[in-house]
Amino acid sequence: PRIPAITDDDLSSDPAKTVFLRATTRLEDGVWRTRLSGGQLSNMLSAVASGDSFVVMPRGVADVPAGGTVSVEMFRWPEDRAFDEGVA
Q1: Residue 67 Rama label (left phi>0; alpha psi -120 to 50; beta)
Q2: SS3 content of the chain, % helix, strand, coil (to 5)
Q3: Model-level pTM?
Q4: Which candidate, 54, 59, 72, 77, has a CA 20 to 30 Å from the CA of 31?
Q5: Which residue spans within 1-88 are E strands per DSSP?
Q6: How far, in Å, are 18, 19, 66, 83, 84 from residue 5 at the CA level?
Q7: How much is the average pLDDT of 30-40?
């Protein structure tokens, strides 16, 4: 599912295509917030391993400043991560 979230980072991508940036997303005071989970180059798999979501930068969008709203595609919810880590 995709949800709206506020980005903590300045984001940039190639406006000629849809880009998925690896991120971590959390619910904070009733508002979803997201930040990049590491480097975004294709060989940096640690950003996927430590992330739980993708920030979707649609075609035609090159930059979103910190504090802007973005669409986030969740592939693991924070509650799931807490359970995986033995917190829940």
Answers
A1: left
A2: 15, 40, 45
A3: 0.76
A4: 59
A5: 2-7, 11-12, 19-28, 31-36, 53-57, 63-64, 69-74
A6: 18, 16, 11, 23, 23
A7: 82
